[in-house]
Amino acid sequence: MITSTTTAITNVRLFDGKQLTDKCTVVLENGIISHSTAAPATIDGHGGTLLPGLIDAHVHILSEDDMGQGAQWGVTTMLDMASASTALINAFRHRSGLPDIQSATLPASAPGGMQTTRMGFPTSSIVTGPADAPRFVAERIAEGADYIKVIVENPHSMGSAALDGPTIAALVQAAHKANVKIIAHATSLAALQLAADARVDVITHAPLDAAADDGLIRSIAACGTVAVPTLTMMRAAAGKAAQMPTHQGTVTAYVNARATVSAFHAAGIPIIAGTDANMAAASPMKVSFGESLHDELGLLVEAGLTPVEALQAATAVPAEFFGLTDRGSIAPGRRADLVLVDGNPTHDIRATRAIQGVWAAGVRVR
To answer: Are 59 and 80 in contact (CB under 8 A)?
Structure first.
C-alpha cells in the first residue's frame, strides 16, 4: 500500500460515471479529486481508461482479507447485506487503503428461518410479526445500520419459516418512518411478488424457479424499486437451489434469473451491480470478493445492458441511489476512488479486468 500524496494521472480516457472523455488528467490530493491540473508526482496512464472506484452493492464481509481482495480488483465501496457480527462490521469501517463499507447489520428473518438455524445469525434478527417490526428496525439503526435487510422467502416452500406479507409490509413502513431504505432478499417468484407487494426499495437476487411475468414487472417499475440481481450468485446457485429448503419442490434454472433481469432493463427498472460475495462456512455457494464484480458486469451485458450501463450500475447508479454523494463519479471534490484499466470498457466490458492501478480515497492499493 502506498501512502496518499498529490498525484496527477495523465494521458487517460475518463469515464466519469456517465460518459467517456478522451485525453484527460486527474489530480488526487488529500484523498479527493482536485481542481488542479498538475502535481509533483505523475503517473502516465498510457492511453488507458480511468474509472470511478467500483461499488459492489451486495457482499457479506467476514474479514479484512475479504475487503483487501475486493480492493485489488478495484472495489472501493462495499455494501454489506447482513453480518452476524455488528461489532466486526463497525470495526472495519473507515480503514485506510480498504473499501469503504455500508451495512445492514442483521437481517430481518422469520422464526425457524435459515438465517438463525443454519447461517449463525442471533435470535435478535427474528421478527415474530408486524408488531415486532418497529423494534427490529430501531435496534438495527441503533447499532449503526445504513439500511434494513429483510429475508423474503417462498411461503409455499418454507411455511412458517418465511415472513408473511403483513410482517414484510410492517418492516417497510418502519424503515421508511426512520428514513432508511429497505432491501429484500428474493430468490423465487413468490418471494419477488411478496417484496413487490410490500413496496420495498430494493430487490436483491432474481427468481430461479420462474421468470417474472409482465404484470409483476410493471408493478415493480411503478413502485420505483431498484434491482440488485446478483447474477453471479444466481448462476452459481441454480444447480443447487432445488436441494435447499427455500426451493423445495421446484425446478430452478439460471435462465429464469437472466430473463427477469432482461425484463427489468426493458421496463426501465434501475439495475445496480452486486455479487453476494461471501466466504461464509455455512453458505452453500461461495463467491469471491472483487473478481466476481467483473463477472457480474459481463453477465449484466449478456442480459441486455450496454457496457456503459453496466459500468454505471457499479458506479454512478448505486452512489446516487444510496446517497453516497462523494463517490461514483470522477469530479473535483469527490473521493479519489479510482481504477485505471487498459483498453476501453465502454466498448468491451471485459477491459475492466485489465487493471493497472487502484486508489481508495487517494491511497494507491494496486
So the answer is: yes
Q: Report, as an integer, the average pLDDT of 227-243.
A: 87
Spatial distance between the Cα atoms of 366 and 340, rounded to a whole number of angstroms: 10
Measured over the CA atoms of residue 132, residue 277, residue 15 and residue 329, the dihedral's sign is positive
Cell numbers given for 74: 478495484
Backbone φ/ψ region at 66: left (φ over 0), alpha (ψ -120 to 50), beta: alpha
Contacts of 49 (CB under 8 A, 6+ apart): 12, 13, 14, 15, 20, 340, 341, 342, 343, 344, 345, 346, 351
Q: At what angle do helices 254-266 and 291-302 cross, to 10 degrees?
A: 70
- What span, in angstroms and rounded, lies between the C-alpha atoms of 97 and 69? 11
What CATH code would you report for 52-321?
3.20.20.140
Cα–Cα distances (Å) from 88 to 24, 80, 82, 83, 105, in that order, read: 40, 12, 12, 8, 10
Asked if residue 258 has pLDDT above 90, the reply is yes
pLDDT of residue 115: 78
At 185, which amino acid appears?
A: H
> In this structure, which CATH number among 3.30.565.10, 2.30.40.10, 3.20.20.210, 3.50.50.60 belongs to the domain 7-50+329-364?
2.30.40.10
Region at 144 (left for phi over 0; alpha for psi -120 to 50; beta for the rest): left
| pLDDT tens string 80-89 | 999 888 899 9
Cα end-to-end distance, the chain, whole Å: 7
Question: Structure pTM?
Answer: 0.95
Model confidence at 309: pLDDT above 80: yes
Q: What percent of the chain has pLDDT over 70?
A: 95
Rounded mean pLDDT, 40-65 = 96
